[in-house]
Write a structure and sequence with these properties.
heterodimer; A: mainly alpha; three-stranded mixed sheet; three-stranded parallel sheet; 29 helices; globular; B: alpha/beta; TIM Barrel; Alpha-Beta Plaits; 2 domains; nine-stranded mixed sheet; two-stranded antiparallel ribbon; 23% strand; binds iron/sulfur cluster
Chain lengths: 781, 304
């Protein structure tokens, strides 16, 4: 590595960064217009074919953009950060927001976008075609009244997953770079030829297998358009150095992703094209990159051995790739944006951990990923570092150093917990050892695991609690969907309170499942992702899209917030009303109704805040209540089938999740005062973190060391002595000490959560350098 | 175990500390200190007896505390409470009655076993480096308790440390040495008179003990110098301390910049903060203060 090379690299990356950051992301009508034209042309054909043809039309006509200094190319549109529109999912919010309701895109309180007059005109022109045909319209027309009303009172909420694609998966990047899209296409064509068309089962597979080659060819053609553009630019380029770079871009894009990559650079470009096309095909977020250091390393090593690549050069390429990942933005409706604020797209790269044979997996590309993160300093991609007892000291140290930079990266994932719990769910040991992070907190097996968002419905635990304490009646709207067993004034014992919780939790959980399964069914019918499905095992083999059950593994989960509020509230009721009797149920009910504004209200609130234990401080009294309350939800949710059940994948069942992103803020708006001393409208607690400001005596293990749900965001900060001492050494990161001892059955205090976790999905969200699992701060709402 | 029932007065137990010794540690703060350093950020640590603190900012003026006190030690004046300290025996009834958590008794009597129950909660996280640190106050102002606590921790395989001012009779210190891995030893001033002015006691005993500890060679010593403006944060004082450190055979010192965290605690105890109004050091000044030590051939660590 020469100093000059490093300087050149830093300057290039700084310019690319500036280019991405200097302007607001821009909305484009290109995709929406091309999609609409294509849909009109293919009316009546099977939907998978229509989807493949639409993708073909988009990829053949969408703007190509090669920016100065870029080495890895491919853009969502003509602007460095273009947001395309996906009208097939939903146009209702688009229609409103194009008219400035509630905000013009460029005037939003957060996540702003610019948009031209012409784009507004074009979008308005196509909206009428989509009205009544979108996924949202279909879902809404089929929804039972109970689900609609559950939403009206905000016990459940949905937005993103009706109005957008699913995302949340890791496609088979290894196949893309080692087999090439042409190779995968050949596999699909062989499968198509091999069908026995007299067998109705095979006949059913035919449309999908016909659609796959269309989509894959379109992807290859898209890359060739970039090759042509690069050639054209090279011919005109005066700077000989840039001319060479453009020529190299051209020859790279001529080869990949069609053919197997032959160099590190080709592999990287191939991965990026794949990632980009997935983003253009659908707007689901959290499309993640899996074990990037593992599938890239063979190319790195070969190139270094051949003398055509250095660490420094590879770092530059990976940084260029990171900038491209950062260019991915999504336009979401404002109402949904509030739940996932900060333009998050959660493209996660996983590094480290162990190989399927149980050896340590760290290699030079692992360090390149960490160095690129430390130097590029952008909010995308997300980096997740797998951790196990065999992780080398250099790796641990480098991770700690990067965490110390305060970027919130990398997140740490504990192999020792995750691998066995995946195996317990029917995943093979080999696949489990190969797990990777998806999105912000989910776990999947790369190339084999279907869409796994832990964020379908938002299940508002705070609201459900409020209903439970008020005989099932919503105080705000007066709606009573599920009559309970009494209210705070009438409960005779704490058992009755828990019973009330179970009644409401079960009822609203059912509404969440009904809604989500309905949405799954309409998506299967209306918005199949052909390109994405072609790249996931074993869709081609089974002749099915992911929605139809093509994936090897398939589990999905909802999303919830307010666990800590529920636990704290129940503990306060148990202790202060039923045990110490310092306040009656009637008094408490009055204080809640008046939002603690009555004459004695503030004293009651202080009592609730200070005289009852709070979740997250390693206090059994309340932690075991949390286990019982949340455990009930976990246990119930695990009994429901998803629409893929029995159609091929291992799994096909619902799971629990403690993922929140920023949903705790808007979800809190609809929830009145709660018995934990929280005032009406205040945010609920995030994930499985203690409620805001209440984790006062955190020990390193003061929350469950294994997750209570499918996604866990763990907030953790060591006690600081206030003297401005040095940042922790890696050995002080508690995660280092997460091992089987900690989960030992002899530890009574842990037992409860372990039991719950036995039913839940295996996620261990590790220590993050900052508070939440997403990369940007929620906006104030 | 014989030592498990030994009692002491503790005012705080802090888990997951990463600055007071190696690895992840649990800090046990014992109450009582022979010194009265004007900059002390834990005034509640100074007296041995439990005492009542009142956090005016948390008080909502409900006056329930007044009725709960059987000794008539509380009166409401203006917008807040006044504690008639001569009547109060820190029984804590008022703190129980106060919904707002505005009243708190600092200090409770606990047994070694009770402390160890708390310490054991984090056993899996201590690893090979972490463990127990006894801090204060002055740990050796309660010598039996401190020695018993350290012995109990050592017996369970934890690393042990104390943070001490060194201001205690040698007979109070020596019984603990068999169970002590690391001594974080404060050096506040090299000059006996200046030391007396700032802390209320001369440094002779402290230096003598340090010499014995260093000569004994049993426990590892880390010397810590608090950087206190208007007291020792000047080149001459620092250079003199550097000489002491070198003479004691140290190779490295920790420099702990003074901070203002104690202010509100003084108020809660109706005490004056002697160092009120003293500005904290800037980063640049702190950097400068490494120099006298480094020219004496000592390594320096800020914080630590
Ligand atoms: S009980 Fe607490 S809040 Fe009420 S007056 Fe006394 S100190 Fe203030
Ligand atoms: S601690 Fe006891 S004596 Fe002192 S004020 Fe409170 S109740 Fe009265």
């Amino acid at each position: 590595m020469t100093g000059e090379e490093a300087i050149g690299r830093r300057e290039r990356i700084a310019r690319l960064r500036d280019c991405m950051l200097e302007r607001m992301p821009e909305i484009s009508a290109e995709r929406a217009r091309l999609l609409t034209e294509s849909y009109k042309e293919t009316d009546g054909a099977p939907m998978v074919i229509r989807r493949a043809k639409a993708l073909e039309k988009i990829l053949s006509n969408i703007s190509v953009l090669i920016l100065p200094d870029e080495l890895i190319v491919g853009s969502q549109g003509a602007h460095p950060r273009t947001a395309q529109i996906f009208p097939e999912y939903c146009v209702s919010w688009l229609k409103r927001e194009l008219d400035g309701d509630p905000y013009n895109f460029w005037e939003r309180p957060g996540d702003r976008f610019s948009i031209s007059r012409e784009t507004i005109r074009q979008l308005k022109e196509i909206i009428p075609y989509w009205e009544g045909r979108t996924n949202e319209d279909r879902v809404m027309s089929l929804l039972p009244e109970s689900v609609k009303r559950a939403r009206e009172i905000d016990a459940i909420h949905w937005g993103g997953h009706v109005a957008a694609g699913d995302g949340h998966l890791i496609v088979d990047y290894e196949a893309v770079i080692n087999e090439g899209l042409d190779g995968i296409r050949a596999r699909a064509e062989r499968a198509l030829e091999g069908l026995d068309l007299t067998d109705p089962e095979d006949l059913r597979k035919r449309p999908f297998l016909t659609a796959v080659p269309i989509a894959l060819k379109a992807a290859v053609e898209f890359a060739r358009r970039y090759a042509a553009e690069a050639r054209r630019m090279a011919d005109r380029e005066m700077d000989p150095r840039r001319k060479r770079e453009l020529q190299e871009i051209a020859s790279t894009c001529e080869r990949v992703p069609a053919s197997p990559a032959t160099t590190f650079r080709e592999a990287l470009q191939s991965v990026w094209f794949t990632q980009l096309i997935l983003q253009i095909e659908s707007n689901g977020h959290s499309v993640s990159l899996g074990r990037f250091d593992q599938y890239m390393y063979p190319f790195y090593r070969r190139d270094v051995e051949r003398g055509i690549l250095t660490y420094e050069r590879a770092l530059e390429l990976v940084q260029c790739f990171y900038v491209k990942l950062f260019s991915v933005v999504k336009l979401r409706g404002w109402n949904h944006t509030r739940y996932v604020a900060g333009h998050p797209v959660f493209q996660n790269i996983t590094i480290g951990g162990q190989t399927a044979r149980g050896d340590d997996a760290v290699n030079e590309v692992t360090y390149i990923c960490l160095d690129a993160m430390a130097e590029t300093k952008l909010t995308q991609p997300s980096l997740s570092a797998r951790w196990w007892p065999g992780s080398p000291a250099r790796y641990r140290k480098r991770c700690a150093e990067v965490i110390r930079l305060g970027l919130g990266q990398p997140a740490l994932f504990n192999d020792e917990v995750i691998v066995p719990s995946l195996v317990a769910r029917g995943v093979t040991l080999e696949d489990a050892s190969n797990y990777a992070a998806v999105g912000c907190v989910e776990i999947g097996v790369p190339a084999k695991w279907g869409y796994c968002p832990s964020g379908r419905c938002h299940f508002n635990m705070g609201k459900v609690l409020e209903l439970a304490l008020n005989n099932g009646r919503d105080r705000r709207t007066g709606i009573q969907l599920c009559p309970g067993n009494g209210d705070l004034a009438s409960f005779k014992s704490f058992d009755e309170v828990m019973e009330a919780w179970r009644i409401q939790a079960e009822y609203y959980l059912k509404q969440h499942i009904i809604f989500d399964n309905l949405n799954e069914l309409t998506k299967e019918e209306l918005v199949a992702d052909v390109f994405c499905s072609a790249l996931l095992q074993d869709c081609i083999g089974r002749g099915k899209t992911i929605h139809q059950g093509g994936a090897v593994y398939d589990f999905i989960a909802g999303q919830q917030c307010g666990t800590a509020n529920v636990a704290d509230s129940l503990a306060a009721i148990k202790k202060l009303v039923f045990e110490e009797r310092v306040i009656t149920g009637t008094e408490l009910a009055r204080a809640l109704e008046t939002n603690f504004e009555g004459p004695d209200g503030e004293r009651v609130r202080q009592l609730l805040l200070n005289k009852a234990p709070k979740f997250g401080n390693d206090d059994d009294y309340v932690d075991l209540i949390a286990r019982d309350a949340f455990g009930f939800y976990v246990e119930k949710v695990n009994t429901y089938k998803t629409v893929k059940y029995g159609r091929g994948p291992t799994g096909g069942m619902w799971q629990a999740s403690t993922s929140t992103v920023s949903a705790n803020v808007p979800s809190g708006l609809a929830v009145g005062a709660t018995p934990d001393g929280r005032k009406a409208g205040d945010p609920l607690a995030e994930g499985c973190s203690p409620a805001q400001g209440r984790g006062t005596s955190l020990g390193p293990g003061s929350r469950p060391e294994r997750p209570a749900g499918r996604g866990e965001v763990r907030r953790q900060a060591p006690q600081h002595n206030g003297l401005g001492g040095p940042a922790p050494e890696p050995e002080a990161l508690p995660f280092v000490a997460f091992d089987r001892r900690r989960t030992g059955e002899n530890d009574r205090r842990r037992e409860g959560f372990l039991r719950t976790q036995g039913l839940a999905h295996p996620i261990q969200r590790g220590l993050r350098g900052h508070a939440e699992g997403c990369d940007e701060q929620p906006v104030e709402v | 175990m014989a030592f498990s029932r030994v009692q002491g007065v503790v005012f705080n137990i802090q888990r997951y500390s990463i600055h007071d010794g190696p690895g992840i540690r649990t800090l046990v703060f014992v109450k009582g200190c022979p010194l009265r350093c004007g900059w002390c950020c834990n005034p509640e640590s100074q007296r041995r007896e439990p005492e009542l603190g009142y956090m005016r900012s948390r008080c909502i003026g409900c006056r329930r505390c007044i009725d709960s006190c059987g000794r008539g030690a509380l009166v409401f004046e203006g917008d807040g409470l006044r504690i008639l300290r001569e009547r109060c025996d820190a029984c804590g009834r008022c703190a129980v009655a106060c919904a707002a958590g505005a009243l708190e008794v600092f200090g409770r009597t606990v047994t070694v076993e009770e402390v160890m129950d708390e310490v054991r909660r984090d056993t899996p996280f201590y690893g090979s480096g972490g463990g127990l640190t006894v801090s204060g106050g002055e740990p050796f102002s309660q010598p039996d308790f401190t020695a018993a606590l350290l012995a109990a921790a050592k017996e369970e395989g934890l690393t042990t440390a104390v943070e001490t001012s060194g201001c205690a009779p040698w007979e109070a210190i020596s019984p603990a040495l068999g169970s002590l891995g690391l001594v974080l030893y404060d050096l506040k001033h090299a000059d006996p008179d200046r030391h007396r002015e700032g802390t209320g006691a001369s440094n002779e005993l402290i230096l003598e003990n340090l010499g014995k500890l260093a000569a004994g060679g049993r426990a590892r010593i880390r010397l810590r110098v608090p950087l206190i403006p208007r007291f020792n944060a000047d080149p001459n004082s620092l250079a003199a301390m550097a000489r002491v450190a070198r003479d004691m055979g140290m190779t490295e010192v920790d420099l702990l910049p003074y901070h203002l965290l104690g202010t509100s605690k003084y108020k809660s105890l109706d005490r004056e903060y002697p160092w009120a109004g003293v500005e904290r050091l800037t980063d640049r000044e702190i950097e400068e203060m490494r120099r006298p030590f480094e020219s004496a051939g000592l390594g320096t660590r800020i914080g630590g």
